[in-house]
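Ticket #232: bound-state structure for adenine.
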Amino acid sequence: MKKIGIIGAMDLEVETLKNHMKDVKISKKANMEFLEGTLNQSPVVIVKCGIGKVNAGICVQILSDLFQVTHIINTGVAGSLQAQINIGDIVISDDALYHDMDVTSLGYPLGQIPQIDTFAFRADQSLAMLAKTSCEKVNPDIHVFTGRVVSGDQFISSKEVKNKIIENFHASCTEMEGAAIAHASYLNGIPFVIIRAISDKADDSAEMDYPTFEKKAAEHSARLVEDMVAGI
Ligand code: ADE
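RESOLUTION: The complex was predicted; output attached.
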């Protein structure tokens, strides 16, 4: 029997989904509130994990251990790392990695976690395909891209930092939780996908654009998630 864990970092990323849930049972762990119930007739656990990699990793472990989720979806917003990916567009993860993992001084490639058998955590391909199909259905006017999501404990708001990340990782968007969710899902053998709507361009205009567009962007991502859970 499927049970889908849905994680957002911030209230606005999970608010709409929570409001659309039925038969809700609430429990608390690690200062996070887990809402178990149904969304679009599918069994789900929805949770706001808080910002950053540690919160995200802890959240996945709880979803795995206490709720036995069978799939994980991360919904939210991100900064674009490609000129053709604009504010409001959607990025679905092909894979995910940490842009701030740096053990290069010991000979590892930038981004590589030592002693793990993968460079980037690959999203479940059927979840990614399902997300794309749902997006085209519920957000027909929005461009949807599949690509690499890079995460770090950093809000990227400078052209120089952005360009370095692009040069190093050829990624589509950047945010602060996706790779940790991917990493923890990988360790627990849970299929995952990251779905991010673009709120800014991760450059010098990001500080202005982010507060203006985060709500609209988060809604695009949430609408897609609500549709896709029925297809899992
Ligand atoms: N989330 C949304 N925009 C972001 C950015 N520019 N950097 C990191 N996380 C983000």
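RESOLUTION NOTES: The longest strand covers residues 71-80.
TICKET STATUS: resolved
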